[in-house]
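User: Structure tokens for both sequences below?

Assistant:
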Amino acid sequence: MRRNFSMQKYVKRGGLAIAVLFALTAFAASETKPGDKFPNLAKMELEGTIPDTKGKVLMVDFWASWCDPCKRAFPIVKELHEKYADKGLVILAVSLDENRKEMQRFLADHPVPFAVVRDARETLARAVRPPGMPTTIFVRPDGTIHSIVSEAVDSGFKEKLTKMVEDALKTLPPKQ
């Protein structure tokens, strides 16, 4: 039986209480933590083009068009790309939208300069088990998880993500 990580359908069917219960269950079942090996993206059946991450820090941002906090986080992620892409940061936004057209509609209204893929089969979501929406995972050049951010998009969110980017970039090998 396929486990579904899309909170949208739970909100539609049973309201917020079920969505919160789902999120807590997913968090409790989460085994992904800093230091773990991040899954091989090429094997995750993602729709879209996966960027080259060799020798770079990868920032994986799980989001969905129906997620209000994700909508508030997207401009921040875009700013981080603009500031740190030339310093070794690669951003991959992973949409958990069930419907490709909803994702495309959102991206038409909010174009971004970084790679976006859709996890239609939820293979990456099942492997990583993001504890909430949005969830951002920083992956070191060696493929291990540096840090995970999954919290409210509030006034300190931009500063927290910026600190995580800067800390993760310190794991890059020295330039020669």
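Moving on to the next sequence.
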Amino acid sequence: MASGGDPAHIKTIIMSLKNTKTTLLLLLLMAGMTGGLSSCEKAPLPGDYGSSELKVYLADAPGDYRALWLDVENIMVNVSNDTSGDSGWIDVPLTRKGRYNLLDFGNGKDTLVARANLPGGTLTQIRLILGNHNILVLKNGATIPLKLPSAQQTGIKLNVNAGLSPTTPYSMVLDFDVARSITVEGHSGTHIFKPVIRAYARATVGAVKGVVLPDSAAAYVMAVLGKDTTSVVPDSAGSFIFAGVHGGNYKLVFAADSTTGFKNDTLHNIQVTEGGSTRLDTVWLTATKGSPLK
């Protein structure tokens, strides 16, 4: 006849089943936690960020020279991604390697020098690497070889800190200030080349345009915002443009050549908005007192 069995044996079986159930629950819970942690800590793949097309342009704020031939060898950018922590220098292929006459790209003109597709992230720096064949041509036609300072022979680093969003194209401009990039030593007459360059994203800056007359004043124009000064030399018609200036309240200084007999002039409170263009009325410089031009 069948019996209920040994009570001690039945108790052992029940406890074993309970322990097995508890173990299964723990295993399932741990598996869920592990999966959750794995999904949180999973490193993103490079393709997760997409890519952005970057175009690099060369522009110039003109100086009083016939030409300044810049020997462009390479352009590199440093792109970091806060999520992955990756960063490093990336070559941006040049459209043409060699010399460019900066004075061809003044008053709003520029030229495309490099382009590439870059991973999304933050564009922190641009490095412009120049060769050894940079040449200045004076008004009288004399040519002067220019050497870079030793600190810049491995490349001129420019801080940018621009965010690169996937599939969004970006245009960066390297704007040389030729007038401030060349200095002349008083005693020796030696021309010193220390490139002064601004790097900016075209979509995040504004512009100021105008005309200064008469052309016989041979004036140049300076845009001053706080401690930042940018200068341009108008063309033969007196037209000038400051392209790529940040928004703010500017002072414009019109400085006539001291040998022409004209007074300098200044405009205050010139408002510039990012992405906008400010057009000025024509500025007429007047002759100095006692000048035969009066």
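User: Anything stand out in the second?

Assistant: Confidence is low (pLDDT under 50) at residues 24-49.
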